[in-house]
Every structure is written in C-alpha cells, then in structure tokens.
Specification:
- The complex is a heterodimer of chains A (about 230) and B (about 300).
- With about 230 residues, chain A is an alpha/beta fold.
- Helix content of chain A is about 30%, strand content about 25%.
- In chain A, α3 crosses α4.
- Chain B is of the alpha+beta class and about 300 residues long.
- The chains are: A alpha/beta (about 230), B alpha+beta (about 300).
- Chains A and B meet through α2 and α3 of A and α1, α8 and α9 of B.
C-alpha cells in the first residue's frame, strides 16, 4: 500500500510543486495521475522514486517510511519499484536480451537466474523473436515493451510509468496500455502519469487529477473530459 | 561480490577504456612517464647510496698520539676508542709502518736516499689510528670526542668529503621527489578527466542503474576497474622498459668507462628490481584506484 500524507514540495527556486497532497493507493490498484504540464505529476513520481525529498509530509510505501529511510537502503527500496519512461531509456549498444538482462545483472543476479528469467519476460511482452535486435531496429511500441520487460524482471510490487505512451502512435499506445492492464491483473500496482485523455477514458480506472500542485479530483472509473 | 558481478564490472571497465581510447592512452602514458621517472631516480638514488656507503667506509679519522706514549699505551687508547658505538673499525699504523709507506711513496727508485735515515726514523712518534665510522654524518662529533682523550695529540679528518657525499645524496632524493610529485599530480588529473568523460558517456546507463536499484558500489565498480587497469598498464610499461634499460646501461657503462667500475659498483638488477616493481606497481594501482574512486563520487547521487 502507498500512503501519501500532507505532502508539500517546494524546490530551491521557490517553485511550489506540490501542496497538501493526500493519496492512498491499495495493493494491486491501477491509478492514472493526470494534469497539465507543471501540475506536479512528475514531482509526485520523483518523490515515490525517492529521487527528491518532500519539504514536509510523509510517504509510506509497503510499510516503509521514505522520510526515515537511510540512504543505504534506497537501492533496496527501488528494487520494489519498476519504472518506465516516455523516452524508453534503453541502452542503444545492447540488444533486447542484454537490455532486459541488464536489470538483473546490476543487482547481482546469478547468470543462471538471468538465463531463466529473461526469456520468460520477453515472452510476456511478446518480443521473444526479437531478442537479438538492437533498440534502433525496433518500433516505438516494441522499445517500450523492452523497457517494461526490464522494469518487471526484478518482480517489483509497484510499476511507475511516466508518460509511457507519449512517444507512441494510437495503435501502439493501446497495445502498451493493454500490457500494463495485464501486468496489473497479475497483482502489480500500476501508477501511470499521463496527459492522454483518450487512454484514460479507454481504461476507465481510478483517475487522480492534479492542477498547480494540488489534487482537484480523485475518481474511481474516472473519465477525463476535454477542456 | 559474486564472481559474475566481478566479471561484469571488469568487462564494463575495459569497455570504458576502449570507448575513450585516446583519453585512456593519454592517462596511461602520463602514469607511465611518472613511474618511469620514479624507476629512473630510484635506480640512481639506490646506486648512489650504495657508492656513498662504500666511500663512507673508506673515509676515516686519523688520530695521532703524544710522542711520549709507548706503543702499548697507544694500543690501550685504541682499545678504548674501539668500544665506541659510532666506530665500525680501527686500523693501527705504527711509526715503522708509516715510515715504510712514506718510503714507498716518495723514495721509489731512489731507495738509497732513504738509507740515511736507517737508524733514525723521521716519523718516530707518528703512530696513529684510522677510525672508521658507521655513519659519516657523525664524523665531526666523534672527532671532537677524540680530541678530548688524554694522550691524543692531533685528529685529522675531511669534513668536506663527508658533507659533500651527504648533501649530494639529499639533493638527488629531493629532486626526484619533486619531479615524481608533479607527475603524480598530472597523472591523477588526467585519470580523473578520463573517468569524468567515461561517466558522461555512461550517464544514461548510470541513471537506469539507479532506478533499477543498483547500489553505489555496483555503479562505481566499473569506473574503479577502469582506473585500476589504466594504473596497472601505466606501471607495466615503464617497469618492463626499465628492466631492459638498466641491464643495458650497466653493461654499456662498465664496458665503455672501465675507470668507472673502480669507483662505481652498480647494484645488480636482481637486487633492486623486486623493490622497484613492487613500488611501481603499487604506485600505478594507487593512482588508478584513488583518482577513479574520488572522481566518480560526484556522479553517484542516490
């Protein structure tokens, strides 16, 4: 469970990114966080990743209070999270297999475990046949699938997706959302930051709408309407 | 650390070197220059110290005694001097031996001229002791003590010889330390620059590693490996060069300048190379490790 209580975040520049944010996300939920640019969506995601610290307030993820977490525990905490980005952030000098295996290698997994798990993940995201391809040989949708496989291979409890369909065409965007839905149905909590109303309306899941650092609505099966 | 992680870090470290090959080569070349100069000065200093030690052994203090003392009394004083801690060796020269030596030096070929002194040794009362010391720097102090002894008439010693050898040795030592220090600083700067370039090449990768939950140790390791490999390469090249250069130089100098071999006894390579290799290797390893370890710290924001 994720509990965000009375969170304020003001950057050194004086920009008040978040004001009195209170959110509770249960295990296995699928949540959209929507809002215009500068509404505070990405800051919220950075706080969950413990990339930035809140000015005040409390964040608890799976009974771990992030504010009281010593720095040395941050890598271990981050292994509970999977993260995907709009720009995929794949390693261009490595093929699909190596990109996915990379996530296991850097946490010290054994070669045997890597050999067992990578093909399973690639099969799950539908890229078994392209394991030797390099990112530049793949479409945007396929690259995002590789990023998802990399994010999921360490079996995270929560998947954070920052504009996962931002660089994709309509068809690929739908396919990626279907994949995220499937992952959610297997028990992983999925939090998607997006400003694609079309995707949000299609999925009909919980929608948290932010504006100027505040939560303006939080609805189950919510829909977003064009202004 | 798992063996697989070790190999992974090693592979990534070597990859980093190849990725920035020119920067890496510049770093290796600077470390090589630094360690080569270290080896060069090391060989010069240890050889000079060896020669100084040999020469020190031949520079002694000559002590003359009152003419009224018998040889037995002189030998008694000699026995007392021999007990001193600073003294390594004593050589007694009787008045007869001193006269025989003078005859050889000054009347060679004209021995008949010396016969006039057959029954009247002109050096009677010139019995002396040559006093050799463990440390030539103690010469002045020991000479002063010798002058205080009852029955001692005169004490002769060469102050300038001792001071000259000591200061020459010190100058060589200081000069080599300064040059090595400057090169060390340049090496650290260059390695640090190379690691910075490697870190900016791998910025994306490091960022992904952080999000995935890699520890700082795992992120840092390939860069430290890179630094260590460059350091060791930088040490291996000059050590190999020095091995052959020393052998060739010694055989050339002793063959070409035979007079040198009378004054200079070069130390055999087997006696100095193990120390040179150990210090040179550690120097390369140290430069590589510390430069990379501290440079990469600023790229490790959790």
């Amino acid at each position: 469970m994720i509990e965000i209580t009375n969170i304020y975040k003001t950057y050194d520049t004086g920009n008040k990114a978040l004001r009195n944010i209170n959110i509770t996300i249960e295990d296995g939920e699928f949540v959209f966080i929507v809002g215009r640019s500068g509404s505070g969506k990405s800051t919220l995601l950075k706080l969950l990743l413990k990339e930035v610290e809140p000015t005040s307030g409390k964040i608890v993820v799976n009974d771990m209070n992030l504010g009281k977490m010593p720095r040395r525990y941050v890598p271990k905490y981050r292994r509970m999270l999977g993260v995907i980005f709009q720009d995929f952030r794949l390693l261009k000098d490595r093929n699909v297999y190596e990109n996915v295996a990379f996530a296991q290698r850097v946490i010290g997994a054994s070669p045997r475990r890597i050999r067992e798990k990578v093909p399973v993940m690639l099969q799950m995201v539908g890229l078994s046949s392209k394991y030797k391809s390099y990112p530049q040989q793949l479409s945007g949708g396929e690259q995002q699938r590789v990023a998802i496989a990399r994010a999921l291979i360490n079996r995270p409890k929560v998947l954070l997706a920052d504009e996962p369909t931002g660089n994709l065409d309509h068809h690929n965007a739908i396919e990626i959302m279907k994949l995220l839905d499937e992952i959610n149905r297997m028990g992983t909590t999925v939090i998607v930051v997006t400003h694609s109303n079309e995707i949000v309306n299609l999925m009909q899941r919980r929608v948290i709408t932010m504006d100027r650092g505040c939560i303006v609505s939080d609805e189950e099966g919510g829909l977003v309407h064009e202004d | 650390m798992r063996i697989s992680s070790f190999w992974y870090c090693l592979k990534e470290g070597v990859k980093n070197i190849c990725r920035n090959i020119w920067f890496s080569l510049a770093s290796v070349a600077t470390i090589s220059a630094c360690i080569f100069l270290f080896c060069l000065f090391f060989s010069i200093v240890v050889n000079i110290q060896h020669v100084v030690k040999n020469v020190e052994g031949t520079i002694g203090i000559t002590v003359f005694f009152d003419e009224t003392l018998s040889e037995e009394q002189i030998r008694g004083i000699g026995g007392e001097i021999g007990q001193w801690q600073e003294v390594s060796n004593l050589e007694f020269t009787s008045a007869e031996e001193a006269w025989d030596s003078m005859k050889k030096d000054y009347f060679a070929g004209h021995e008949e001229l010396a016969e006039g002194f057959a029954d009247d040794n002109p050096l009677a009362g010139s019995a002396s002791y040559q006093v050799f010391l463990h440390d030539i720097d103690m010469q002045e102090q020991v000479a002063a003590s010798l002058k205080q002894l009852a029955g001692v008439r005169e004490v002769h010693y060469s102050n300038s010889a001792a001071a000259g050898l000591s200061s020459f040795n010190a100058v060589i030592g200081i000069l080599s330390l300064v040059i090595i220090g400057v090169l060390l600083a340049v090496s650290v700067f260059l390695i640090s620059n190379t690691i910075n370039v490697a870190a900016s090449f791998r910025k994306n990768e490091n960022e992904i590693m952080r999000y995935i939950g890699a520890t700082n140790y795992m992120i840092r390791a390939p860069f430290v490996v890179e630094g260590i490999v460059m350091g060791l390469m930088g040490a291996a090249v000059p050590l190999a060069a020095m091995y052959f250069l020393y052998l060739r130089s010694v055989s050339y100098l002793t063959a070409r300048f035979q007079i040198l071999s009378r004054i200079f006894q070069f130390l055999p390579l087997s006696q100095i190379f193990p120390y040179m290799a150990a210090v040179g290797g550690l120097l390369g390893l140290g430069i590589g490790f510390f430069a990379s370890f501290f440079t990469i710290r600023k790229h490790l924001k959790v």
